[in-house]
Amino acid sequence: MEILEPQPTTKAPDEWFTGDVWFDVLHAGREPSRLRANLVRFAPAARSHWHSHALGQTLHIVSGVALIGTRDGRIIEAHPGDTIHTPPGEEHWHGAAPDRFMAHLALWEGIGEGVPETTWLEEVGHDVYTGPRISAS
Known about the structure:
Helix content is 3%, strand content 47%. By secondary structure, the protein is mainly β. It has a six-stranded antiparallel β-sheet with strand order 1-3-4-12-7-10, with no helix packed on it. A four-stranded mixed β-sheet has the order 11-8-9-14, with no helix packed on it. A two-stranded antiparallel ribbon has the order 2-5.
């Protein structure tokens, strides 16, 4: 057993996020583990750019109101305790509602062997971000 040394909170890069986003790496597995776990905090209206994960991603909402969008135009509104899964390769974005901070746990797996686990794409436009929502519940 080992107590892991915490890493400092990091500001998310502008090339991947719109608005103020901060994350704490909770776990970045070492071989043979491929587990990745981050606590990610979004300011109101902050959001990721479009992206996909080679092996999928699970988001567990900790606080606030989360918005998770897909290329088909769906925007899921999720609340604390909700868990959302995106399958491998699905292009999506996630962020905070315009009037609320939001925090989620992001869980995904790395592929290893230097293969990118996340493919980052273009910014999510305001017209997409403000589209109609459906409830996760």
